[in-house]
Amino acid sequence: MARAISREPPPAADSPAEQALAAKFTRAYESGDIDALVALLTDDVYVSMPPVPLEWLGRDDVTRFYASIMRQGRTYDLVPTRANGQLAFGTYLRAPTGVRHGAGLLVLALTGGRICALTRFDTSVLPWFGLPRSLPGDQTR
Fold first, then answer.
1. CA dist., res. 131 & res. 126, Å (int)
2. Cis link prior to 51 (omega < 30° from 0)?
3. What are phi and psi of 17, to 5 degrees?
4. pLDDT higher than threshold 70 for residue 139
5. CA distances from 111 to 25, 37, 135 (A)
6. By C-alpha distance, which of 123, 118, 122 is closest to 134?
7. CA-CA distance, 114 to 11, in Å (whole number)?
8. Domains and their CATH numbers in the chain
9. Looking at the chain, which terminus has fewer C-beta neighbours within 10 angstroms, N or C?
């Protein structure tokens, strides 16, 4: 019989602690800073992408996964939202034309001040969260 993992409760929605974690995550993800991203994860972090049957378990596997994505030179902009009360982000891939194309929705599960799971859904769900499929070019970046 597997033992249940005891976890700290997540920070309250929209609390200063959750806002700080969201800001750190956004900075790390948008800048492609793997070290800063990994610092936010629990040792047993879990990443999945339903309905694709791929998953990554543990900080080492998740680090390799995100490093492979960010090494490809892809850069993203994140737009915050909520999914079932959880912190979530629409992810938008920056294109050379300036338009940012939807790349999916990331839903974060939090424990204490860390991320214990990330679930990525495809772009078809963006409108359900009031998010567009693409964003106009941003001249400030």
1. 5
2. yes
3. -65, -45
4. no
5. 14, 15, 31
6. 123
7. 9
8. 16-134 (3.10.450.50)
9. N
pLDDT in tens, 64-86: 999 988 877 788 999 999 999 99
Q: pTM here?
A: 0.89
Sorted by sequence, the CB contacts under 8 Å of residue 101 that are 6+ apart come out as: 92, 93, 95, 133, 134
Provide the pairing of β-strand 100-111 with 76-83.
unpaired
Query: DSSP code of 58?
Result: S
Look at residue 138 in the predicted model and tell me its pLDDT. Answer: 62
Residues in the chain: 141
CB 116 within 8 A of CB 58: no
Q: How far apart are the first and last CA of the chain?
A: 51
